Amino acid sequence: MLQISRVFPGALNEEAGLCFLLHREQQLVAYASQGNVILLKAPTLDVHRVLAFFEAYAGFTELDARICAIAADSDYGLIAAAVGTQVACWVPSAGDAWKVHSTLNVSIPIRSLHHQAGRLLVASDEMVSVWEQRDEGGIVVWSKAWEDRTDSAPVIARLSETGAALAYAYKDSKDVHLIDTRRSTKQILPHPRPISSLTWRRPTAGNRSSLTLYTVTSDSTVRIWQPVLDAPHELRLWGTIDSDSFFSDERAVHVRWLDRSVRPEEGEPLHEDIFFAVDRKGRISLRTVSNIERRPPTLLELHPSQQMPDLHTIAPDNSTAVIPIPSPSDTLVMFLSQHSLQALSVTLSSYLDDIKDDSKPLRPYTTEPFGVQHAETIRGLHLRSDGRAFVTQADTEIILWDATSSTPRTVARWNINCELAAIVDDGVLVYAGKDLVLLAKDGSKRRVQTPAIPILRFLYSGMYLLALSSTHCFEIDRHTLEILGQAPLPDATASIRVPIFGHNREILDVSEDGELTFWRYAHGDFRKLGGLATGIKGVSMAACSVDRRSALVKFDGDQYHLSIWNSRLSEFSSGLEFEYTFSEEILSLRWTFGTSDGLAVSFKTHVVVMWPERMTYFDTTPSWASWLQISVDQFSPLALNGASFLGDGSLVVTAGNQVAIFNPILKEPPPSEPSNLLALLISRIGPLPDWHPQVVLQCLLWNKVDRVKQVIERLAKVVLQEGATTDSIQKGLMHLNDEPYDDEYHESQQTPVSRSAQRHSALFGSETPVMDEEDEWRFSRPLITKLLHVLDERPLPILTINEEEHLEALIETTLEIDEQRRALDANGIRYLISIRSFYILNRKSKESPNVFEQTPVIEARSRIRYRDMVWAYHSDTQELLLQGCTQACNNKMTWSDARALGVFLWLTSNDVLKEQMENVARNEYMAGDDRDPERCSLYYFALGKRRLVHGLWKQAAWHHEQSMMLRFLDNDFDVPRWKTAAMKNAYALLGKKRYQYAAAFFLLAGALQDAVNVCVKQVNDIQLAVAIARVYEQSDDGPVLRSLLLNTVIPMAFSQDNRWLGSWAFWMLHKRDLAVRIIMTPLPDLAMTLDGPIETFGRPNYDDPSLAMLFSQLKAKTLQAAQGTSEIAPQTEFNFVLQIARVFCRMGCHILALDLVRSWSFDRPTAPTPIPQSAVEDDYDMSPTPPPPMRRSSFFSLTGRRRSSVVIDVNLKSLPETRAPSPKLPTVAEDQPADVKAPTAIEAPKPRRTGIGSLMKSAKQDTKVPEFDMDAFF
């Protein structure tokens, strides 16, 4: 939540006046503004609460309710307000909240209210009445206690302290009417001039029955009225204080009595009353009167006036009030100017010599005046292009605000009815009727040059102002207000036109069909900058940022759909960054100034600040997030009208006739992050430090393990330093990258054996052995163990809980990689990263519950991603990977473990596949204490081991199905009768929803296709279907497996836009060209080359930077892959690399983005020349094609580069000179036997034993020990 800088609660309703009450040791000032009661805290005048009249009467709104009278009673803590003939009352609730106490309806419009001693005085046009409250079943009901008719409407009416007597006066009347409601007696107090105010004196303790009335006439003369001894219920004039007696050089224009009696310096324990006066210069003078409570009136004593210093002045008007402030000093008061709402707080004992005050006087305090405010509901909020000024527009009011300081202030106010308003250099330019009118800052108005065509909208465009009509655009100079030029609009059919934030003369057009077009106006013409087809029809609202991000809102009649689009469009990005549906009406969209690209979305109840979120591998979060919600409900129930950012990041919010300014300082900023909103937004989307888990993970995936080790070493030096504190660690992290990294790090690292040899050799040398002080900071298990222990106890201050858990997991993973790096290839390392992170993070998710919700902080995953499985599939160290997977499962891999790790998708050896399936079956049987054969039947049947299952059932004596299964498994299932019986049992099990057991019976009947269908449709396990198909058919070319890949896996990959899964499936089908093309080619275009119709396509998603790594690895791995690469246009590859670089930047890995675009190779693979048949037969040795020239290596690289050989997976003799974009996939015949070989166009030909020459020998030799080096692609 942002801190509230200031709230401008609205102009005062002059007919209602103001009052004050003491609420929980806090003096509150209450006044009416439009249909609301505003409560201000004294003496700061901060808004305490806004009480809306519609809270008591739901039918009212702030538009049709104008409060005409208010009253407040400190003794009862009650506030009353009247609108027309209706009265609403509020009382305090829990905290600072207020609740509706009661309501009252009268028959005649109300003019004045007053509440005292539990009685409510209501003065209407023809009646004065007194009402008392009573409780009827928990509901407060007002009953009329007294009433009397009047000659006209009293404008001033007050009850006495006991509530028994009342006094009122008509407008411009010279008489005060007194009525004793209990005795029904009346009295008229005549005055020589009209009455301006009257007040009952609050008696002191022990003298509650005393009646004293102060009246002030229009000439600021005060009269004191009290009863005499022989007539205690009739008032007589006791004394007069002339307006000339306050100032020696000028007459007072306003005089009031301070509602507090003070004790004199010496004498009897009596009290003095204080009167103050204000002259035309705003000076304040004081006079005290003593002996008011004494009898007879001849003892009344008036003391000389004492003027306050000229330094302490207040805005002069005829409605200044003085309010006592609760404090240790009895003489601390606040002078409040009613019109400007400016307050001056002083301690009167500092200026009155005869007043006793033992407390220390407080320094005078003057508040900043509110200035002019709105009396009507605000309809529009218009900002200047630099955000340093803005205009608020009501129906007949316009106020100009200056926002150059931290707290905006009002500059001028005009009463004018206009359609449009825009800020120019000399004031505000408005379009009223058919004229352009300049509202100058001095309050004057003048007409300026006006286009002949009616203006529909103003657009700020940098230093210029564009006036748009239905057909033309007029450029207006903001200084001279001259029309500099005009041009026809480029698209007259555009439904919405908005300025492009921060760009001169640039606008955005939105068509009815949702097409975005960017234009620049220059030299009397519009030039198109670009466009974007969103496909959203009926856009109702739009806004465009400095970075040309466009926010669109569509209303479908029920909900509001917000979408955010990026104008940087390519075939790899639709432009859509975020979309969300809101049920609440969206009022406005406003971008932040500058490049932070924060978006304020205004609703009626709150404002949501959104910003582009970093992409991450850790959480499935959207690319945009809302983490800041701003509302005014903590002090106001009014619905918001709109919100907009100012130039310094402040947020201005309008609600009703009120303006709230939120400064850009967060109340509770995230730990170790900027407290300024704009700085925080920039830090959330800027580059991440090298030790951040996001960067560490990407470096590990891109095989930059040595760089990660150096980063971890430096991190350990900072965290493990002696006497490290939070501040020292944070400072050390900021300077972690000050020194350059060592590019020869892998060579400088020495094994412990070599270091020991050096030390032993030094014993026999002449040099003194020197211990390497850096050895203790070398990357090793002891160092990592110590680092992880410290991080567990004292997390890094900058990271969140999730990020801290991920960092620890990656550090531990890096250690595992370092210990096995010499045995693993690059793809194996990537897979090891995935499974280590997978298990560590899932373990962390169980160990780290949320303190408040008792839920895991890190969400557990059921399996690794298909991306990670593909790395293992292309690894040449699968035996080590399988060994690591088995160890991760404690040597008891069940099917859930195998599925989580994708084992049966990436294993390539059929023998290992069968062996692993048998291990899974055995572990499934051994899992648990019951030893249930049902759990392992599917896996053993896939292996063809029916007799083994029969033996397991013999041991399941406890199972209620044992005898039945033993009799059934004794049969020969090669006989059609028992195949049919197995099929019937399978369908019966489907009816009982025992799906996996049903699939086992399908396998028992030899119906592999039916078993696969059950795994796909009922069990919803694609991996299980692939596993049993591969094991049952004992080949990757079986018809059922190929059908599964063609008809299920590939369509699923297309529907989910999962290019990893699609690439794996095409590679399994020996369509390596399609496996490469799917990485970059749009899926609808690729689907056109396939036989089977694919109609469902997922939204294009190229937000995985590892796609570039996969493409660089596969594009020249085989001849088919090289052919697929050659079908990709170079420009497409160029755009693809730029897209991945943008993704890196969105992830905060800017250094990797720079590395990618700096070192990416656009070399096109070249297919080998077809070999003549005679040359093949004669074992002709061909010279290899010379390699392309060396490219510059990656500055991020740490190892050398070695080129890989190309695997020949096509028949070179039959290779045509030209080929279609992609061969069609073969159809799988339903009656094709399992042992039929796949067509030669799909299956790679087996090399002959002799005759292909040294080229094939070299290829075979190279593929035995492949070595993947990331530097080969940089």
TrEMBL record:
One GO CC term on file: RAVE complex
Domain RAVE complex protein Rav1 C-terminal residue range list: 530-1156
InterPro entries in the record: DmX-like/RAVE_component, Rav1p_C, WD40/YVTN_repeat-like_dom_sf, WD40_repeat_dom_sf, WD40_rpt
Domain of life: Eukaryota
Region (Disordered): 1169-1194, 1218-1262
GO biological process: vacuolar acidification
Protein name: RAVE complex protein Rav1 C-terminal domain-containing protein
Species whose genome carries this gene: Calocera viscosa (strain TUFC12733)
